[in-house]
UniProtKB/TrEMBL annotation:
InterPro entries: ATPase_NBD (IPR043129), ROK (IPR000600), ROK_cs (IPR049874). Gene3D superfamilies: 3.30.420.40. This is ROK family protein. It comes from Streptomyces cinerochromogenes. Pfam families: ROK (PF00480). Belongs to the ROK (NagC/XylR) family.
Length: 327
């Protein structure tokens, strides 16, 4: 039986797995990300994960290898420049993974961004299963997203399509680290929610670093400042989602990430704001649901995208079908 190799590279952990055609992880390995170390030390951690995976008997049946990475990524050049891994800037990750001695010559690694991987995973096995037009979002310390259009993952020319966190929803809003103003991420990320609550006078629990989860807990207890912070984030998300729905006609929106763990604290105001911003007939009453595949979405999505693109023989194409869900 074929297995799909998968790597998920984030700011805290480098995870790897061999995934079977039903989406089950049959082997897994991980290393902490040496995020402050030089490029070659970082690569050493990736190779160590590949050493573990390739030591398993199932490696002999490796059909493809997907790499989900924190972004930005450039899937044409095969490079990554993760914001939270400063040692890698335009780092040629695809080429350097291909140079691992046990990666077979016939396997071309397929690189995708982490939010696009989450989208591929939700489309294959999660909340967007069977849906032809979906926006999937990760709302955590940042805001990322990916698109399924006409039943296929739409990663875009360089792998960054669906980058909803950097749509401007506030024309003269605060400067964003990306260089623009009033981006969704600056209003709706967990960082933004905590900062907004603190600025308005909310007091975090003693000893806490003041996280969005703390603000959510306060909101559930009825704290009006905490509720307002989530309401503002929900408003920004709704404006970004409504713009996307107007552009491409969505059937479903899936939201994962730490901030989505707040549940109705986020989803209730989000649905309320959607009814204000998404009013045209074709975009009204858009269904918004939580993600289903929290922990392994990056690995499952990397495997899905790699198998789809390898099967299609279009490893460099920006658009890929997703494998059929298991029966
Ligand atoms: Zn921005």
């Amino acid at each position: 039986m074929a297995v799909y190799g998968a790597l998920d590279i984030g700011g805290t952990k480098i995870a790897g797995a061999l995934v079977d055609p039903g989406g089950r992880l049959v082997v897994r390995s991980s290393r902490p990300t040496p995020a402050r170390e030089p490029a070659e030390v970082l690569l050493g951690a990736v190779h160590a994960v590949l050493d573990d995976l390739s030591a398993h008997a199932a490696w002999a049946d490796l059909a493809c290898l997907g790499i989900a990475s924190a972004g930005p990524v450039d899937t044409v050049a095969g490079t990554v420049s993760p914001v939270n891994i400063p040692g890698w800037r335009r780092f040629p990750l695809v080429e350097r993974i291909r140079s691992h001695p046990r990666v077979p010559a016939h396997v071309t690694p397929v690189l995708i961004g982490d939010a696009v991987a989450m989208t591929a995973a939700e489309h294959w096995l999660g909340a967007a299963r069977g849906v032809d037009n979906a926006l999937c979002m990760v709302v955590s310390t940042g805001v990322g997203g990916g698109l399924v259009l006409d039943g296929r993952l739409h990663a875009g020319r360089s792998g960054n399509a669906g980058h909803i966190g950097h749509i401007s929803v506030d024309l003269d809003g605060s400067a964003c680290p990306c260089g623009a103003r009033g981006c969704v991420e600056g209003l709706a990320s967990g960082t933004a929610i905590a900062a907004r609550a603190l600025a308005a006078g909310w007091t975090p629990p003693v000893g806490s670093a003041a996280t969005a989860a703390d603000v959510a807990a306060a909101a559930r207890r009825g704290d009006s400042i905490a509720r307002a912070a989530y309401d503002r984030a929900a408003q920004a998300l709704a404006a970004g989602i409504a713009a996307t729905a107007a552009l491409v006609e969505l059937d479903l929106v899936v939201i994962g990430g730490g901030v989505a763990q707040a549940g109705d604290t986020l989803f209730a105001p989000l649905r309320r704001w959607m009814s204000r911003y998404s009013v045209l007939d074709f975009a009204r009453d858009l269904e918004i649901v939580p993600a289903e595949l929290a922990l392994d979405a990056g690995l499952i999505g990397a495997a899905a995208a790699a198998s789809a693109r390898t099967a299609a023989g279009t490893v460099r194409s920006g658009s890929a079908a997703v494998p059929s869900p298991p029966a």
